[in-house]
């Protein structure tokens, strides 16, 4: 697995589509602009119908080309990472294959995300169906589409962000990459103790060695599943790690210095809300 480098960009694109009005009257060559003679009425009507049909076909082709161009622009614009300060977060409904997984806000304004069962994921051929996971975020956090060419490759399953508050990304990796002795029902304990897990996977999250950066390390259990929770600085990041089925899950919450100062309580609540169900 490669090193992750985070960058931000402002996502914007132009509306490249052109409209063609299929009902626009096209005057056949040699026919007066205001109409046809009685003798040529039938011929003109047929000619107009044929010309209108040609316009409709041309409009359809043009619209299809515009859609392809717009889609390519959208996909290429998200390859640079998370949206920057003040830029709009792309909602998941804009990308083919995205299925909404957010609940309505609760009384405190928090929404619960559950990975949809029918959401596709680029995690290799022959894998068993992915066990869904959940977490909670404040309102106004939205999913950021992940491309197969995204930094981190196919092991980044999800990105979430609020440009003013912070970012979330979920890494899902095959446990067979770490040990051939781990079966199809892996546990995080089988992969290793907390210090071994953070030493092995922390660098893949923050892009550098984690020695001297682990401020907090805790072990929690929820419904019989063990979770390792870490807080690192610098850079500011909280990592929740667990295993389920034949996969390792790394749930990562990060932000810049100002976000960490202003929204630390909410970011920690997000990190501790992660569950594999």
Number of helices: 4
Regions with pLDDT < 50 over 5+ consecutive residues? 1-46, 55-99, 122-126
Q: How many DSSP E strands? A: 12
Task: Report the average pLDDT across residues.
Answer: 72
Strand order of the largest sheet: 5-6-7-11-10-9-8
Structural class: alpha+beta
Strand portion: 15-25%
Amino-to-carboxy terminus distance: 26 Å
Question: Nearest-angstrom radius of gyration?
Answer: 26 Å
Explain the overall architecture.
This protein is α+β, with helices and mostly antiparallel strands and 277 residues long. Helices cover 25% and strands 25% of the residues. The chain is built from four helices and twelve strands; from the N terminus they run βαββββββααββββαβ. The strands form three sheets. Strands 5-6-7-11-10-9-8 form a seven-stranded antiparallel beta sheet. Strands 3-4-12 form a three-stranded antiparallel beta sheet. Strands 1-2 form a two-stranded parallel ribbon. Strand 9 and strand 10 form a beta hairpin. The longest helix has 37 residues. The radius of gyration is 26 Å and the shape is globular. The N terminus is likely disordered.
Write the layout of secondary structure elements.
Blueprint: E1 8-9, H1 41-77, E2 82-83, E3 110-114, E4 133-138, E5 142-143, E6 156-162, E7 166-174, H2 188-191, H3 194-206, E8 214-222, E9 225-232, E10 237-244, E11 247-254, H4 257-272, E12 275-276
Parallel strand pairs: 1-2
Antiparallel strand pairs: 3-4, 4-12, 5-6, 6-7, 7-11, 8-9, 9-10, 10-11
């Amino acid at each position: 697995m490669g090193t992750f480098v985070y960058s931000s960009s402002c996502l914007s694109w132009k509306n490249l589509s052109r409209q063609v009005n299929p009902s626009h009257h096209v005057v056949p060559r040699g026919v007066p602009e205001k109409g046809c003679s009685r003798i040529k009425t039938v011929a003109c009507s047929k000619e107009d119908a044929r010309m209108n049909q040609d316009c409709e076909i041309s409009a359809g082709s043009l619209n299809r080309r515009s859609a392809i161009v717009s889609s390519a622009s959208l996909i290429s614009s998200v390859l640079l990472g998370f949206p920057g300060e003040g830029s709009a977060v792309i909602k998941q409904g804009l990308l083919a294959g995205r299925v909404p997984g957010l609940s309505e806000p609760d009384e405190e304004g928090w929404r619960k995300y559950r990975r949809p069962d029918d959401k596709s994921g680029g995690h290799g051929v022959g894998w068993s169906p992915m066990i869904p996971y959940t977490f909670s975020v404040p309102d106004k956090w939205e999913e950021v589409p992940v491309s197969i060419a995204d930094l981190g490759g196919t092991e980044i399953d999800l990105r979430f962000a609020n440009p003013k508050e912070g970012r979330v990304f979920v890494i899902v990796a095959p446990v067979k990459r770490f040990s051939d002795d781990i079966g199809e029902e892996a546990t995080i304990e089988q992969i290793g103790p907390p210090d071994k897990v953070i030493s092995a996977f922390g660098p893949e999250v923050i892009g550098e060695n984690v020695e001297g950066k682990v401020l907090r390390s805790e072990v929690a259990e929820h419904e019989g599943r063990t979770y390792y929770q870490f807080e690192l600085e610098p850079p500011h990041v909280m990592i929740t790690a667990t295993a389920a089925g034949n996969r390792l899950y790394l749930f990562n919450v990060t932000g810049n210095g100002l976000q960490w100062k202003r929204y630390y309580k909410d970011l920690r609540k997000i990190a501790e809300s992660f569950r594999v169900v």
